[in-house]
Amino acid sequence: MVTKKKAGVAVVNEGGAHGALRRAVTKELSPEEEKVMRMRLGASPPRTAPLERSFEGLSDLEIEIRAAEIEAWMRWKARSADEGEPARVPALVTSRAKEKIVRALRKKI
């Protein structure tokens, strides 16, 4: 981290903090402070860091509902992929009135 000393206070610039957070887990910050700094600076965790779990143990009903949601999403994706037709874009139609307006606006600028 790039630090500057000002009358007994260490000042860290944003680039230095971002680089330090990208390199490794910091020892000076608590986990909550580090999480806030990462969110504030947009620094991703190191590649070697384990992923956090954002939930407690799920009940059987919650697991079944999540599985049903995933299956429905997969069927929807497969159906949209099978259709294979891209969204149709309307053909460009030029009109004399539109061209006249555009020319007038260009002259005005």
How is this structure best described in words?
2% of the residues are buried. Strands 1-2 form a two-stranded antiparallel ribbon. It has a domain at 3-41. It is built from four helices and two strands, in the order E-E-H-H-H-H. It is mainly α. It is 53% helix and 7% strand. The mean pLDDT is 77. Helix 1 (14-23) packs across helix 2. The chain is flat and about 70 Å long.
Give a concise summary.
This protein is mainly alpha-helical. It has a domain at 3-41.
List the helices and strands and how they pair.
Elements: E1 3-6, E2 9-12, H1 14-23, H2 31-41, H3 60-83, H4 96-108
Antiparallel strand pairs: 1-2
Helix pairs in contact: 1-2
Question: Which residue ranges are poorly predicted, with pLDDT under 50 across at least 5 consecutive positions?
Answer: none
SSE series? EEHHHH
Q: Going across the major beta sheet, what is the strand order?
A: 1-2
Q: What's the average pLDDT?
A: 77
- Bin the helical content: 40-55%
Using only C-alpha atoms, the radius of gyration works out to 27 Å
Fraction of residues in β-strands: 5-15%
- Helical run tally: 4
Shape: flat
